[in-house]
Design brief:
single chain, 169 residues, mainly alpha, 2 domains, 4 helices, 85% helix, rod-shaped
Length: 169
């Protein structure tokens, strides 16, 4: 952009001046069209002068149409600029000037933190549940020392696996 990405007001002034210039040019082109139309009416249809005036009239009509297309392009660009300015103002008001990109990053950070917290919680409760279950089994096997040793080894192996796992969820 000529005035930077955020020169909306400056660009709007430029587009307003361009619109006024286009209107003046269009008025002149319409006068030319009318002039050639009047000249044609004063000539005999099919004469050399009439054919020349008809050619000039067609050129004038093409120029008017071309200018109208230019004006529509300018109005479209001005509308897009005004829309971008409005979106930026709304964005700044909603985000306190931080922008939606910053909010997206913060949202992702919070979601990742929540996932980490949930995983940590699930890991801790999972380890506690396994420990409690094995402790109950060990208590129930108090009369059999070999069974207690096997359960103790199995419990330690299972707890080691759970503690080494990155994510439990």
């Amino acid at each position: 952009m000529l005035y930077g990405d955020k020169g909306y007001d400056t660009l709007n002034k430029y587009y307003d001046l361009q619109k006024q210039n286009n209107m003046n040019t269009l008025q002149t082109l319409k006068q030319q069209e009318e002039y050639w139309r009047n000249r044609m009416q004063n000539e005999v249809v099919g004469s050399e002068a009439w054919k020349k005036f008809k050619e000039n009239l067609d050129d004038a009509i093409d120029a008017v149409n071309s200018k109208l297309e230019d004006m529509l392009d300018n109005l479209t660009t001005q509308f897009e600029n005004k829309l971008a300015a409005a979106v930026e103002r709304i964005n700044n008001k909603l985000t306190g000037g931080l922008g939606t990109t910053y909010l997206d990053e913060q949202w992702d950070y919070l979601n990742n933190y929540d996932d980490y917290f949930l995983d940590t919680y699930n890991a801790t409760t999972g380890i506690e549940d396994v420990t409690r279950a094995y402790q109950q089994a060990l208590d129930d096997a108090a009369a059999n020392p070999q069974q207690q040793q096997r359960l103790n080894k199995l419990m330690n192996d299972q707890l080691k696996i759970l503690r080494e796992k990155d994510k439990l969820t």
